[in-house]
Amino acid sequence: MSIYLPIAELSVNIFLLLSLGGVVGFLSGMFGLGGGFLMTPLLIFIGIPTNVAVATSANQIVASSISGTLGHWRQGLVDFKMGGVLLIGAFFGSILGVWIFSKLVAIGQIDTVISILYFALLTGIGLSMLIESSKVIRDRIRRKSVKQKIHYHNWAHRLPFKIRFYKSKLYISVIPPIIIGFVIGILSATMGIGGAFILIPAMIYFLGMPTSKVIGTSLFQIIFITALVTILHATTTFAVDAVLAFFLILSSVIGAQIGVLAANKLRGEEIRALLAIIVLGVATKIALDLLVEPNEIFNLSVIRLVF
Amino acid sequence: MIRQLIILFYIFIGVLMPSVSIALVIGSDQEEIYIDANFSGEELLVFGAFYSDPSQSRDSKSDILIEVVGPLEDVALRKKDSYFGFWLNSKSVTFRDVPGFYYLSSTSELTNEFLTNNQIGLLEKERSEMIDWSSLTTDWGSVVNEKEKKEFYNALIRTKQNDSLFKQVSDEIEIIDGNLFRSYIDIPNTVPVGEYNVNLHLIIDNEVSQEYSYNFMVTRVGIEEAIYSFSKNYPFFYGLISLVIAIVIGWSGAEIFKRFRKV
């Protein structure tokens, strides 16, 4: 059974869409990630045009990060002030990102740029997960416990415009979070990701936020950033496909909840290593598409209908 | 049913036009193709009859040609080149007024000469030596020499063929009883919306003796049309509604499962 997507202007198998959403949702629920970094390339693999894949992924992430934020919010693990400061940067970043995106569409280089960005992102994510999980597995075998610093003091504490973030127990300059938000905004708009994978380490290492508050705060700000990106794409690139988004959201929300349940029952490191391998597999496929001479070196795109 | 209709038609025409040696009628099973949520391509049936005067000898060779031309589009064709091992888009050419769908079918293989003389067949230009480039494109970009232009032109035809949007065949028309014919034409799910022209030619001794044309429309209907036009006319509200859907499903999903887990 297939469904016609009104914006992508093609029909796809409905079960393929549901299982794609379900699997990505499951992984995101299990690991507490948005899943956009897998959703966008997988959509492109099944033949969805790049611009539709990016814009629709952003819309889907809104749903999955709302689901995630609620839990953290109830436990008081969201630093709204920090989220707000990050959003100031993200606001301008995503406007710039959508502008860059539409320029790349116009000159016909969007597919290539997206491929290269995804290759870099997925390789980074995959390798760091693989290293981290293998280290944990090794430490577990050696029965070693890893000591963690509670608070980092670095250059972020010496810049001007310092304000107090009570929830995170921080007194730092607003410049680093605004810059981080700006960069995440650009990436979110061009790649259709929430950016948690970059945001979370940046919040821990650059801002020195407590680990417990990081996930909730990043999810909270991802809701708004992806919401903004959705609106920007809907109004400038016209690439948000509501039908595609609907099926992806439906299946990914269910998948995410099952993923959360599964995460409580299974041991993390082995599955994290597995996810790392999946991520690296996707990165390899993207790299091969860039490096191996394609069967057809020409590609066609419709500019406009002639009336 | 269709067949009876054709026969009726054919008798009718025969009675009406006794002076014409060969008459032609054509029909189709649908005047409109609707793109709805279930649309996954369609098979269009084109049928017809050609009536020949029995008093005339039948040794002259007659052929039928069906041409379907979709709405015109401007398309950008890009060529990938290898840069430091990476295959990246480089040269780009903009072709003007390219049919979004093109189908050419005949009862026997037609000669290039015939197609050129009658200006039928987009695919045939590939083989012909003289191509009127000025009618094809407004922007050659950095493509300058004749050889490269031809390479791009061939690639245009090839990529369209690979997407099943261009097709030229000589074995898809079924002849029944010598005077009735029918043909099933595949309309893939990627076809553009708009007006399509179906042109039928009856060819006798390499000359077009009869022509007949009609149109059909490919249109979006129902929810597909509603979503598409809403997204174009009210993009901001379209984005907003997409968000609301995401928020509602995201929120309620979390709530439903929370209760489910407590039980």
Would you mind describing this structure in some detail?
Helices cover 70% and strands 8% of the residues of chain A. With 307 residues, chain A is mainly α. Chain A has one domain. In chain A, helix 2 (36-45) packs antiparallel against helix 3 (50-74) and helix 4 (80-106) crosses helix 6. Chain A is globular. Chain A starts with a strand and ends with a strand. The model of chain A has no long low-confidence stretch (mean pLDDT 84). Chain B has 5 helices and 13 strands. Chain B has helices at residues 2-16, 112-118, 146-162, 222-233, 235-262; strands spanning 22-28, 32-35, 42-52, 62-69, 72-83, 86-99, 102-106, 137-139, 166-169, 173-176, 180-187, 194-204, 207-220. The model of chain B is unreliable at 14-20 (pLDDT under 50). The interface between A and B is large, with 61 and 68 residues. Strand 5 of chain A pairs antiparallel with strand 5 (72-83) of chain B, so a sheet runs across the interface.
Blueprint (SSEs and pairs):
The complex is a heterodimer of chains A (307) and B (263).
Chain A: E1 2-5, E2 10-13, H1 14-31, H2 36-45, H3 50-74, H4 80-106, H5 110-142, E3 162-165, E4 170-173, H6 175-191, H7 196-205, H8 211-236, H9 242-265, H10 268-291, E5 298-305
Antiparallel strand pairs in A: 1-2, 3-4
Chain B: H1 2-16, E1 22-28, E2 32-35, E3 42-52, E4 62-69, E5 72-83, E6 86-99, E7 102-106, H2 112-118, E8 137-139, H3 146-162, E9 166-169, E10 173-176, E11 180-187, E12 194-204, E13 207-220, H4 222-233, H5 235-262
Parallel strand pairs in B: 2-13, 7-9
Antiparallel strand pairs in B: 1-3, 3-11, 4-7, 4-12, 5-6, 6-8, 10-11, 12-13
